Every structure is written in C-alpha cells, then in structure tokens.
Amino acid sequence: MYLPQLIIVTPPGDIDFGMFGYLQDENQVIASSKESLEGLIVSKKENIILEKNKTYKLVANWKAVEKNAPTIRLNSNGGNFGLANDKVFSITANNGAKIKDLSLKLPTRAGYTFKAWTMDIAGKIQVNQDKVLSYNEILDIYAQWEINKVDKFNVRYDGNGSTSGSVPIDNNKYLKDDTVKVLDNGSLRREKHSFKGWSTNSNSSGVSYKNGDSFSIKNDVVLYAVWEKDSSGGGDKPDPKPDPEKPRPVNPDPDKPGTKDSKGREYGTVIEPKVEYELNKKDHYAYIKGYKDETAKPNGYITREEVAVVFYRLMEPEYRSEIETVSHTFTDLDKDRWSEKAIATLSKGEVLKGYTDGSFKPTNNMTRGEVAKAITRFADVKVLETEFPDIIGHWAEDYINTAGNEGWIKGYNDGTFKPNELLTRAEFVTMMNSLLDRKVKKVNALQGMKTFRDLPEEWYYEQMIEAINGHNYDVNRLTDGTEKWTELVETEFPD
Predict the structure, then answer these.
(1) How buried is 324 (Cβ within 10 angstroms: 0-12 exposed, 13-18 middle, 19+ buried)?
(2) pLDDT for residue 263 is more than 70
(3) Where in the chain are all domains bearing CATH 2.60.40.4270?
(4) Which fold has domain 71-147?
C-alpha cells in the first residue's frame, strides 16, 4: 500500500502566463478552473479526495495574462489641466521607463505656483525619480503648490512745498492694474499759490491728474501737489514782506547783462566771505532728520535753509557755541522759523550772507553749481583745469573743478556736470558725505537704524542712511575704504 501520487503536467509557458489550480495538501486538490483529473472534472474550489494506491494526473490549464502599459495619474490637487473639471490627467509610459525620463504635464492653479510632484496629497513623500515602471502598474502622484506673493502698491501724496493743511492719505493697498481714484487736496494750501492738481514728478513734468481722476496702477506712485504762483501776489495770508519765493536769475553770470543794484552788483549775487572754520569730520552725527510725514524726500530739491541747517549742525561744537544767535536782519526770515537759528548763526559767523535786497530766500532751491561753490570754500587749493565740458565759461567753473579734484562731486554718465540743474537732497547728501569722508555699505550698518518709507534701495540708499543715523564706527577702515558701524548714537542738536 502506498500513498496516492499526483503528477502535475504543465505545458510550456513563460512569465507571461499563469497556472490556475494548486495542491493544498497531500489529500486535497483545489482547482480554480475546470481541469482533467482521471476523467473527473475538477471545478473551481471543488475538493477531490485522493484514494490510496492510486495515481492521479493533474493537467494545468494556462491562460495568457494581459500586458498593459504603465499608467501615471497626475492629480492636480486643487488645480486643473486646462478646464475647471480636468482635475486628473493620465499618461502612459513604456515598460521599464523611469519617471525622470517622462514629460509630465503641469497643472495650473490661480494664485499659486507649481512646486513639485509627491507620492501623497499632503506632500510629505517625494517621488523617486529613478523608479522603473512596469506592466500593469498604476501610479498616482500629486501636485504641490506654493501660494504666490501678491505685490501690493501704495499711492502717497506729497505737499510739494505746501505751507498749511494736511496732505491726503490713501491707506489702500492696490493690486496691479487696480483703479485708483485721485484724492481731493482738501485743506492743503501753499501761501501765495493756487492748487492746480497732482503730478507724478515734483517739478510737474510727470503725468498730471485732477482731483477725482482715475488711473490704473502699475507700481508705487507718489503724487506731488502742483502749485501756480498767484499773479496778484496774494495768497492765503497777505504778507507785506518781500516774497521769499520771488524768482531770481538762475546761476547769475557776472559777464551777462542783468538787473543790478545801486552798487553795480547783479541781483541774486550772494555775498560769501572766506570761511574760517572746519566741519566736524570726526563725529558721525545724524545731520539729516527727515520730515514730519516720515519721509526723507531723497528726490526732492535741497533748499538754502536746509543747506544752512546742515552746515550749522556739522560745525565744530566749540565754534558754533561762540557765534550762536537768533539775531539777524533778513527781511524774509520769520521769527521762530525752524531754520532761523542756523541761518542767523552762520550769518553772524560770516559763513553765509543773504542777498543785496536784504533777503535770505530760505525756501529757494539751490543748483548743483551753487552747492559746489559752497562746499569748495573748505578746500585748501583752487583747481583751474576743467573736467566737465558743459561748465566751460560758467561762473561756477572754478568751484566745480576744485570740488571735483577733491573727490567731493561727480558728474553724470555722459561726462557732464549740469551746473544749472537743481540739486536733489540725495545728491547733496552724497556731496556732503564725500566732503566728510563718511561712507558705509548696508551690510556694515546696524540693525535698528533709522530709515524712511520713501527710501527704496536705489543708488542713494547707503548715502542717505549714513546721513540719517548718528553712529560710532571702527576707526580702522575696511579694505574698500568704507566704515563699519559699532553703535547707534542719538544726537540732539541745539536747533
């Protein structure tokens, strides 16, 4: 007696075929399809009891397995593939291909930027780019997104010489192409002037708008008040004093005919004696304070009183205290004006004088040539060689050449100096920093330094922060000649 024997006959096959049916144990056979077993039909899941002393033959029945190309299903995860309902996009690949070799269509999503594909919707499992794809494989991968940083733009209003009232304030944050409605000037006034609208340039050469106009915003905008001088000489407040804003010849040239006073001197000529004091170059005081609206107006034009106040602040303290006064004879300098002490003190020290008509004209802007003359009075030599072609024969030629030789001023990229152009506050600060040998790189300034909302990181940014912030510094200069700040210092000037 012997145990039953089972002989399994398998026809030729390969990995592309699968056999249905198997031997569960020595006494049972379970077939998953109809098979021949000694004349008996073994149906699916049918149990056959094998008898002892008998031989059985089980013939395998083969069925071809379907071979489908690998499929990758791209899930847009909140986006789409062109239409709102196209949330999933399927692509087929060749057997054996790697994911990194495939071109995967990218979805889009409003307000977001595509970041990466991941194996899970939460974005925690990265896709293995070297994964080899095989037949019948279905792989789901999910898009991951990064929210876009939305640029928001501001509209700021500038009184541009206003003497009373409040500058309009627009607190809105605008998206690109939003519509902006120009605000009314309200109570904003300028003495002896009429309000004419707003301009994107402080000298009224930019785009002009009236109250209530609308425009499409593309970036940050500053709207400057446009003023027109009253022809009657009147204004908000009648003033019997000479008009401090009265036009005068720009860069009066002694060689040209013009209005002269009783002594034969051309109107507008400034009486400036030799300077007998030095500026304080050792202490790096803050000599620019900015305006009450928290702006520095780097592109605004510097005025005579602003220049006077800067020189006053930078004078050697001992000498300043000796000549400090508020007494003066200028007909257009009101008592308690913010610049009165500085102008009066510099006049007493014969550092600055006024005009031959008895005025000082504190609000008049200064040209590049006029400021070059002011700062060259601190030079030891006069240079006569002309560096800039557009100053030949100009009344300030010698002063400009001297300042250029000292390295205090620079011209424009086209090689000119433009002596008759009005000087901006940023240009003036750059000249003063050169005169004082003060220069810093942003990286060597200090956290917590003061800045202003209208100081973008333009060419003048480092020049302005040097002038705005009082600070101590390492006396050993860096290799590029710039300084490294060590401490911010609050400076209280007696003005």
Answers:
(1) middle
(2) no
(3) 71-147
(4) Immunoglobulin-like (2.60.40)
